[in-house]
Amino acid sequence: MKKHKRELRLAACLLALAMCAALLCSCLHTGKADSYTAAMPVIVVGSDNYPPFNYVGTDGAPTGVDVELATEAFRRLGYRAKFVTIDWEKKKELVENDTIDCIWGSFSMDGREEEYHWAGPYLYSRQVVAVQSTTKPEELFLNAEQNGLPRLRRLYSLQNRDLIYTTLIKGYADALAAHESAIRQFMKDYSVEYRILDEPLMTARLGVAFAKDRSDDLPQQLTEVFQEMLADGTVRQVVSRYLDDPEHYLDGLEDRTHA
Description:
The chain is an alpha+beta fold. It has 10 helices and 9 strands.
């Protein structure tokens, strides 16, 4: 009986030692990983608050579709991404004077091809028009042809995301135009309902903008990493965590990586 108890105690001690060893190894590996990440050269990514692509999470850290994609893409290239909030209207100035290394925040490449050195596209985004449901503007837009639309009486350009939606809610504007994903995110966050018109204004390619005179090949390397991440399903996985129907934003991009 005593021998049996000693054997049980010995087995318990050995199990405890094994668990401690495993925990120690885990901590050492984690420490090495953290140390390795901290030693990586930093890439400063400039963006603004634009859910679900880039925003501050409940833990106070940047999060969102673009944050996750940027973190993983630059990690694969041996860099550590650092996210800073910028005045979006000054983005070109900031990237050209090296305050930031790149602009990444649901940024449309179309029509800006000659302004920046681009990496991408990594996603597509529809630019759409939305009207508040069950309102007179909705009725007018639903019968646009009969009502002589689209002819704009007045156009407001607003930088602040919340003000854009406030102008519609308060009736200062009849409709708003923005990325469809941003409109749907606002509807979800604030429990409001807009009607998004079926016909998009355009389908935009989303990319990462570097200074036009950048001399290294980092933009090209990043484009190649996007192709890898599209092919191995990483982009789809990230998008699925934030947006419904990821296929809507990939629009065949994955297939082209296999062509």
